[in-house]
Amino acid sequence: MxxxxxxxxxxxxxxxxxxxxDIEKRYINGNLEIFGIIDNHGKVNWENIVVEAELFENNxxxxxxxxxxxxxxxxxxxxxxxxxxxxxxxxxxxxxxxELKVKVSDAYHSKF
Length: 112
Description:
By secondary structure, the chain is mainly beta. The chain has helices at residues 2-6, 13-17, 91-94; strands at 7-8, 18-28, 31-40, 46-56, 62-74, 78-86, 99-110. The radius of gyration is 16 Å and the shape is elongated. The chain starts with a helix and ends with a strand.
């Protein structure tokens, strides 16, 4: 398994090392776009970062989830802008969004 020899996943570290800030949502031509910044507060380079956004109605009811991979090498003490999107997102659902929870749901770092 060459992939597992080169890459390894440490499921606890990325959650403490990576954080998301400055979240913004936009609805453009039927597409939902979510923007933000990922900060790396850790001591390793993080790659293949997966960002997940959960969308909720005013009453707390779950509406939808959007996920996207950020293909970057995020060095320690650095930041990266990101965008994840959903095409052909119904405007009726856009109008119902009152809360947005965005998090890093996965990430990998190399041994090198």
